[in-house]
Amino acid sequence: MGTTDARPSEEEARRRLGQAQERLLAALVAGGEPPAGFDPVRLGAQARSLVAKRRSVVARLRPDAFEASGADFRSDFDAYAASRSAPPPGYRADADDFAAWLVAQGKLKVRRTPLSRWRRRKG
C-alpha cells in the first residue's frame, strides 16, 4: 500500500510533451534540428513541403509581389522564409511580410494607397 509510482507525474509528462512539440515545430518551420526519433530526411521533405504551400498561397494573396519577383519568385520566397525564425501567424501576414522583404531587396516598390472615397467626398 506504500508503493511508489515510478511513472512521471501528469504535469511532468505534459511539460516533456510540450518541449518535444516545440522541437518538432522548430525543425519543420525554423530550420531547427530534428528531434530524437524522427527521420531527418523525411522531416526535411515535410519542411520543404510546408514552405512550398506558403509560397503558393502568398503568390495568390500578393500577385504584386509574385509579379515583382518574376522568375526569381521561388528562390526569393525561399530566401525570405529561411531568413525568419518562424512564419508569422497567418497567410495574410506572411504575404505582407514577404512583400516588405521584397521592398527591402529593392524588387518591389512601395504602393501608395489612394485616399478612400469617403475621405475625398468629406472634403
UniProtKB/TrEMBL annotation:
<dbReference type="InterPro" id="IPR058711">
    <property type="entry name" value="SCO6045-like_C"/>
</dbReference>
<protein>
    <recommendedName>
        <fullName>SCO6045-like C-terminal domain-containing protein</fullName>
    </recommendedName>
</protein>
<feature type="domain" description="SCO6045-like C-terminal">
    <location>
        <begin position="19"/>
        <end position="103"/>
    </location>
</feature>
<dbReference type="Pfam" id="PF26136">
    <property type="entry name" value="SCO6045_C"/>
</dbReference>
